[in-house]
Design brief:
Blueprint: H1 5-23, H2 32-43, H3 53-56, H4 64-75, H5 79-105, H6 109-121, H7 141-157, H8 161-174, H9 176-192, H10 200-203, H11 210-214, H12 228-235, H13 247-270, H14 273-296, H15 314-334, H16 338-359, H17 376-387, E1 393-396, H18 411-415, E2 418-419, H19 425-432, H20 437-446, H21 455-465, E3 469-473, E4 481-485, E5 489-493
Parallel strand pairs: 1-2, 1-3
Antiparallel strand pairs: 3-5, 4-5
Helix pairs in contact: 1-5, 1-6, 1-16, 2-4, 5-6, 5-7, 6-15, 7-8, 7-9, 8-9, 9-14, 12-19, 13-14, 13-15
């Protein structure tokens, strides 16, 4: 076995590198607008003297920002390089864990690495209608937690359950909600691997699950009446509501469960006991979590649980679908054929690479540290970061994240300056923290009609909130003192 270790090590690094290259790297993108901001605030407390509640409160449930900040201080590595390094390390951990799982389920090396190859190519695959990818194109605590969860699953498959317990602890500290899903699956997998096999598991899907789920729903805040503001914000995020999903999103949720049911039956007939038990665990986990989600998301009294997004259980299901699907392709189709492997690798990676190029067409595919961006929004953020005072307080279009060519890059994270609340990302924060609703509404409403703002409107914002800078479309409104522009955007003082 030892003579194969270098090969496995280099294949792990190869597929991790390929996965990163295919999905791209975009620091400050989407959720990283919150996470990267929190990291920078921990590294330099002088940053963001205004509106910190829109990123700090959410981070209280995770050690992610504090741990990254500690790493930066202890190593002397810049935040930009630390994020890239840890992003790659997270991907390596995921790839290694996937290989360990595949190695337990399939004895053939070609099957194991075909599964790993399909997972890494599909890192940027959307998970049904749950508004998440297998792995994000930026450093996210979910990716780090996923690596530990997958490692824990590999330990259960190896009958080393106590090792799984210790691996789930760092996952929980990084991302409690996703780890709860991981713990749920580990419980089903442990039951499915019991010898003798617990026959009641096969009868369980035909029994009611509502009372079992209700036993684990905490009281108090869950049943607190939602505020009108919070309901408005919540209803603007359709992906949170399962019964608003399109038919193809429902198909993306239910079809994988059916496929794992078929795999369970197939593996049993083939005498592949461990694969059969694994497939059964995925099926039962999915049925249980789907039932819980349907109960929670159809019960008005439980609407406060909606932002917890119970349909995110599909994240693990999709990982297993890609991994096992790739393993089966390697075992029964690719085999040892060089040309089949070549077609397989080119097809899956080229297709996903092209989709990412289209998705973030205005930005470099790999936004590496030190690289000058051609994106006018990122150019503006970089100029602000280098040339404005640390305590500068900015106003900008509350819908800027959805602006053409912006590609959902967060202002706070990349410009490193305070800003008035935006509608898109800060609105998502409000779904998790209802108490922010009134202040968020006040700030967003004050910026209503932004494209038509004149000097008096900016002066009103300054008088009401204390903002003293603005990022506006070029040419700027008359009266603003602008210190920089790139032909698309201008950075201006508010007199």
């Amino acid at each position: 076995m030892k003579r194969y270790l270098p090969v496995n090590f280099f294949l792990t690094l190869f597929f991790a590198t390929l996965g990163l290259a295919v999905m791209g790297y975009h620091p400050g993108l989407e959720d990283d607008g919150i996470y990267l901001t929190a990291v920078k605030a921990n590294v330099n407390p002088a940053l963001y003297p205004q509106n910190t509640v829109f990123f700090q409160i959410q981070m209280q449930a995770t050690v992610f920002a504090k741990w990254i900040a500690w790493f930066v201080r202890e190593t002397g590595v810049s935040v930009a390089y630390a994020e890239l390094l840890i992003q790659f390390a997270s991907i390596v951990l995921i790839v290694f864990a996937c290989w360990l799982i595949a190695r337990q389920l399939f004895p053939e090396a070609r099957a194991q690495w075909a599964g790993v190859a399909l997972v890494t190519a599909m890192f940027s695959l959307p998970v049904a209608g749950a508004a998440l990818y297998l792995v994000d194109q930026h450093l996210h605590p979910r990716a780090m937690a996923t690596g530990f969860i997958l490692l824990a699953i590999s330990r259960i498959l190896a009958n080393k359950k106590w090792q799984a317990v210790f691996l789930l602890l760092p996952a929980f500290l990084l991302h409690p909600m996703m780890t709860a899903m991981g713990v749920s699956f580990c419980a089903f997998l442990t039951l499915a691997m019991m010898d003798p096999f617990p026959a009641w598991l096969l009868r369980w899907p035909r029994t009611g699950t509502g009372s079992f789920a209700a036993a684990f729903i905490p009281l108090g805040w869950v049943f607190a009446p939602p505020t009108p503001t919070w309901l408005v914000v919540l209803n603007s995020h359709n992906y949170l509501f399962l019964y608003r999903w399109q038919w193809y999103e429902w198909l993306g949720a239910l079809a994988p469960l059916f496929l794992f049911w078929l795999l369970w039956r197939f593996a049993r007939r083939q005498g592949e006991a461990l694969l059969a038990r694994f497939a059964l665990a995925v099926f039962l986990y999915g049925v249980f979590q789907q039932a819980v989600a349907m109960i929670v998301l159809s019960t008005p009294a439980l609407i406060r649980l909606t932002p917890l997004q119970p349909m995110r259980y599909l994240h693990l299901v999709y990982f297993f679908l890609m991994l096992v699907g790739g393993c089966l392709l390697g075992k029964y189709l690719l085999k040892s054929s060089v040309w089949r492997w070549a077609v397989f690798l080119v097809a899956i990676n080229a297709g996903m690479f092209a989709s990412q190029q289209l998705l973030y067409s205005a930005s470099e595919h790999l936004e590496l540290p030190g690289r000058i961006s051609a994106n006018p929004w990122l150019q503006a953020f970089a100029w602000i970061r280098r040339n404005t005072p640390t305590d500068a307080y900015f106003a900008l279009d509350p819908y800027y994240l959805a602006a053409p060519g912006e590609d959902y890059h967060g202002f706070r994270a990349l410009a490193e300056r305070s800003q008035l609340a935006d509608y898109v990302k800060d609105g998502s924060v409000v779904t998790l923290i209802p108490d922010l609703g009134d202040e968020w509404t006040r700030q967003v409403q004050a910026q209503k009609g932004w494209p038509h703002f004149q000097l008096a409107d900016f002066e009103r914002l300054k008088a009401e909130f204390g903002v003293n800078w603005a990022l506006v479309a070029y040419p700027q409104p008359a009266g603003l003192e602008c210190e920089w522009h790139n032909g698309v955007l201008a950075v201006c003082r508010i007199p």
